[in-house]
Structure formats: C-alpha cells, structure tokens
Design a protein that fits this description.
about 325 residues, alpha/beta, 7-stranded mixed sheet, two-stranded antiparallel ribbon, 11 helices
Length: about 325
C-alpha cells in the first residue's frame, strides 16, 4: 500500500513539475525558450547515460561510415532536437492557428496538400503514418487545423496526470485519442465507417513482430498497419514534419502514398507494404538524421536463429 501511495505521489509531483515548466516556457520569448531547450539538452546528454549509449549504438549501426566524433555530434544534436520539440509543443497551442499555419508549416511539394485533402474527403478509410521523426505531434495538430478529422492511435502514458494533460493538447483540433489496445474495437469502427487514423509506425513490436529492413538491420515492426490497410482498403499516407528553421519552421513531407489494391493477390502483401513504408520513413530520417529519436531501442529485438531439426542434429 505504501509503495502505491509513493507511486501516486511521485506521479503527481512529476506532473506539478511539468506544469511549472510549461508555465516557464510559455512566458519566455522564443529566444529564451530555445536557449532553455539547448541547456536542457546539454544537461540530459550528461546525465542520461543509458539513452546516450543507446543512441550512439543505433547511429553507429545506421551510419557505419561515421567516425566516433561524428557519432557523438549526432547524438548531441538529437538531444537538442528532442528538447526543442518539447518547447515547441508547449508553445504550439498559443501560437499555431489555421490563419497562420502556412507561416510555420510548408509542404515539400505543391501537390502534397491537395492529395491529402482529396484522400481525406474521398469517403475512403485511410491511415496516416509517421515515425519518431521531426515533430510528429505537429503532423496531427496541423491536420486538425485544416479540418481533417479522425483518430490518433497512441499508447497512454504511465503517469495518469501527464496522460490527461497531453490528451487535452491533442484534442484541441478535434481529433479523437485512441489507445491501440483498449480502443481496438473503436479503431475498426472508424475504418469501417470510412474514417482516418493517425499512427506511428517505427516502434519495436517484440520478438514476434514482422522483421523488415531498416537502415540495413532487421527491425521488428507491427504487421497490424499493413493488415488493416489490406482488410479495409485503406491507403497509407507516409508523412513527416522536419524542422528547417527556428522558431518552429517545418517542412511537411508526403513521402509515400501506398494503395493496398496494388498488392492485391500477393501472398507477401503484408510484408511488402510494411517494408515499403519503413523505407519511406528511412528516407526522411536520412535527410535529417539529427531529428530522429535515436534514444529509443528500435532494434531491441532481432530474429532468432532457426532451430535445426532433430534429424539434422
């Protein structure tokens, strides 16, 4: 009982600290907020040894030609990107509006926005897929501002206070929050009604996931995205928002547009679709490698070697 009380108290204490930090960031100028972000990045780099080592290992595998100083610079840059993104998220609701969206988010290609809107208005179910790249939160926020409705599939935070706080931010533009486990029937209902879902497609799926190539290494990936696309005839729009300037200047990529009917009848359709969108995510990361979340263990699980048969043994 006491452990539970301590856990609840710690959750609330962390929540209070986050709310205080949010207030501080909101009252600072952009210059002050970005200075704070760089300071926090430097502090995190020094104190967060475990994730710093994970990031270094991931980058060495992804870019084997980089020497040790270059790997370290990229690790530091990824910390700066992450803390800058957090600052931007805090300030986003007070700054970003439909009227000024073009001042902060611009499309990489002129026909990207018309293609996305046409898909959203087609009455056909659709999956908008991104990764832990750039500012993945601004992707859904911008979609909501231009009138695209649907759900966001995400894992709830362990801290219930922070989870509710983040949910308020995500619901500001009219999008529905869905837990990928608890709300699965609702997910199917939305797709069945011709709605859209936003998903993140670069999380480790455990030892039983589908292994596809990502930066030259097998990466365990959830097969459910491809299966939903095939079952409901839902196109997959691979989207990413890369920072190209400060404050909060982004380029939005529609990196790939995958039609499930192109894979009809193929026995390897789930794997082929999963590999294709994974390659699209990799292309975006290669353009802006400092903006990937190298701190997470994307390659945590690896394929197990096949056991030899008893007869062969």
């Amino acid at each position: 009982m006491s452990a539970k009380r301590r856990s609840r108290a710690l959750d609330y204490a962390v929540y209070v600290l986050v709310r205080v930090a949010v207030c501080v960031v909101q009252i600072l100028s952009w210059r002050g907020a970005l200075w704070l972000a760089r300071g926090l990045a430097g502090l995190a780099y020094r104190l967060d040894r475990r994730h710093r080592l994970v990031a270094g290992d991931n980058i060495r595998h992804a870019f084997p030609d980089l020497d040790a100083p270059a790997v370290d610079r990229l690790v530091r840059a990824s910390y700066v990107h992450l803390t800058t993104m957090l600052v931007e998220m805090i300030r986003m609701p007070r700054i970003l509006r439909r009227a000024n969206l073009d001042d902060y988010v611009r499309h990489a290609h002129q026909d990207d926005l018309p293609r996305m809107l046409a898909c959203a208005n087609s009455g056909r179910p659709r999956l908008a897929l991104t990764g832990h790249f750039g500012n993945w939160e601004i992707v859904s926020y911008a979609a909501g501002l231009i009138g695209i409705r649907g759900g966001i599939v995400a894992r709830r935070l362990d801290n219930p206070h922070l989870d509710r706080f983040l949910a308020v931010f995500r619901r500001r533009t009219g999008l529905t929050l869905l837990d990928k486990a608890a709300d699965y029937p609702r997910i199917l209902e939305i797709l069945g009604a011709g709605g859209g879902l936003g998903m993140v497609g670069d999380q480790d799926a455990g030892p039983r996931g589908m292994f596809v190539d990502f930066f030259g290494r097998p990466a365990s990936t959830f097969k459910s995205i491809a299966l939903l696309s095939l079952e409901y005839g839902a196109p997959i729009l691979v989207i990413g928002a890369a920072r190209v300037g400060t404050p909060m200047q982004y380029r939005l990529y529609l990196e790939d547009f995958i039609l499930p009917e192109d894979y009809a009848g193929r026995p390897d359709a789930p794997r082929a679709i999963t590999q294709r969108y994974t390659e699209a995510l990799e292309r975006m990361v290669r353009r802006h490698p400092e903006q990937y979340f190298w701190l997470h263990r994307r390659w945590k699980n690896q394929p197990q070697p096949k056991r030899a048969s008893k007869r062969a043994a």
